[in-house]
Structures are given as structure tokens and as C-alpha cells.
């Protein structure tokens, strides 16, 4: 049985904490509550199309609302104003799908923070300033080799080969410059 997502999209939220006073949007399927715990049973949360500038507070929010926070596997933070990947996101080790498109992430070092999410296989980052950087796709895949879909496009054998060649070349250039100093 697929559980419906907890949906806080299109709420003009500026912080995760504001969602605590909001009632999640209803969908075609009703949320499943675990009566004895008084919490929601879901694996997915939507915070898309808000005005979030930080994901701070996400962990405590999820812990307070979800029956089993460790099962969170899908998180949509797209179309906000996030400029960083904060620890609140990386805490959820079972994330498989993470949507961060349409934000304000500028640095590949922020993408690198996601490397602790070993189960992450689907990621979106398009519409962030870092998408304009040379080698964007392959640099993201270099940080996150487990990704199977980036920006709604499957990762191909050619993508993996380009990343492998890029890493080999970068390592050789580093060793050469180190030996020549």
C-alpha cells in the first residue's frame, strides 16, 4: 500500500516551524494516523512552492509528526529559496528521492553534503544557480555516484564514464602539481 504524502505545498511558509500550525493539504487519499501514537504514517513530505530560506527545524518537525521518521524516503523542497543543504536534510538516511530544484543553491560543496545519503537515487537540482556551471551534471554525479536519476533524466553509462574520466584526470593533475612543487 502506498501511503499519501504529508503536503505543505503552496503555503507561503518562510520556515519549517510555521508548518506546525498548519493543517496538511488533503489529497485523493486520506492520511493514515497511527492511533496509539497519534502520529501520521507516511514516507513522503512536500514543502514545495513556499518561501523557505532554510530547512532548519525539519528534523524536529518530522520527529514530532511522523509515526516512524526513519522511513522518510521522499522529500520535496523544490521551488523555495534554499541556498544550503543543511544537516536537517542529511539526517534522513533512508531518503531515496530529494527534490531541490528551483532554489538558490550555488555551490557544489552543498551538493557534496548529500553524499551521506547512500540510498539517494533520485535528485533534482535544475533551476539552481549551480546548474549554470560548466560540467554541472557530471560534477553532481562525481559527488553522488549512487544517483540513478538527476533532474528527471536517467544517469547513463556514458555519464558514468565521463565522471570516471574526469576523476582520473583530476587526480593525475593534482598528483602532478604536488610532485612539481
From TrEMBL:
<keyword id="KW-0963">Cytoplasm</keyword>
<keyword id="KW-0433">Leucine-rich repeat</keyword>
<dbReference type="Pfam" id="PF14580">
    <property type="entry name" value="LRR_9"/>
</dbReference>
<keyword id="KW-0677">Repeat</keyword>
<protein>
    <recommendedName>
        <fullName>Leucine-rich repeat-containing protein 51</fullName>
    </recommendedName>
</protein>
<dbReference type="InterPro" id="IPR001611">
    <property type="entry name" value="Leu-rich_rpt"/>
</dbReference>
<dbReference type="InterPro" id="IPR032675">
    <property type="entry name" value="LRR_dom_sf"/>
</dbReference>
Amino acid at each position: 500500500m502506498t501511503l499519501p504524502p504529508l503536503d505543505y505545498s503552496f503555503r507561503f511558509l518562510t520556515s519549517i516551524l510555521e508548518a506546525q500550525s498548519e493543517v496538511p493539504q488533503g489529497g485523493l487519499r486520506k492520511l493514515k494516523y497511527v492511533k496509539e501514537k497519534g502520529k501520521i504514517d507516511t514516507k513522503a513530505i512536500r514543502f514545495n512552492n513556499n518561501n523557505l530560506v532554510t530547512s532548519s527545524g525539519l528534523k524536529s518537525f518530522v520527529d514530532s509528526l511522523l509515526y516512524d521518521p526513519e522511513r522518510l524516503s521522499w522529500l520535496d523542497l523544490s521551488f523555495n529559496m534554499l541556498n544550503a543543504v543543511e544537516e536537517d536534510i542529511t539526517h534522513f538516511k533512508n531518503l531515496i528521492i530529494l527534490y531541490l530544484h528551483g532554489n538558490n543553491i550555488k555551490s557544489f560543496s552543498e551538493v557534496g553534503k548529500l553524499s551521506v545519503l547512500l540510498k539517494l537515487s533520485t535528485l533534482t537540482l535544475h533551476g539552481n544557480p549551480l546548474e549554470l556551471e560548466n560540467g554541472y551534471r557530471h560534477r553532481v554525479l562525481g559527488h553522488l555516484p549512487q544517483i540513478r536519476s538527476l533532474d528527471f533524466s536517467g544517469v547513463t553509462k556514458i555519464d558514468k564514464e565521463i565522471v570516471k574520466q574526469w576523476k582520473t584526470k583530476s587526480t593525475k593533475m593534482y598528483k602532478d602539481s604536488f610532485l612539481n612543487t
